């Protein structure tokens, strides 16, 4: 299983994440490639909220295909092209994470691989076998 690591000598997490996650025992580790706001039909959605929501749906679909869910996430890295989108991201992220608090990194970048992409999320998940 995994255990949240929130040391008392480090400032408490500023949001819905853990400073670290420790994993133990026989397990399956899943590395999820960066997910973007593209529908299963291959259509890129317009706007930050639509792209972020679809990217999280895609990430959850990958987890489910591996027999996992958000509770198995141990690390999430999120890329935004506009810092102003952060408040809207927090609401979307919370819908998909529920009570899970994976270690997390948020990066605001000048651009992603395609000029129309405004959001990307990648993750690592762990399941004890």
From TrEMBL:
Transmembrane segments: none annotated. One of its GO terms (molecular function) is deaminase activity. Gene3D superfamilies: RutC-like (3.30.1330.40). GO terms for cellular component: cytosol. Belongs to the RutC family. This is Enamine deaminase RidA (YjgF/YER057c/UK114 family). It comes from Variovorax beijingensis. The lineage of its organism: Bacteria, Pseudomonadati, Pseudomonadota, Betaproteobacteria, Burkholderiales.
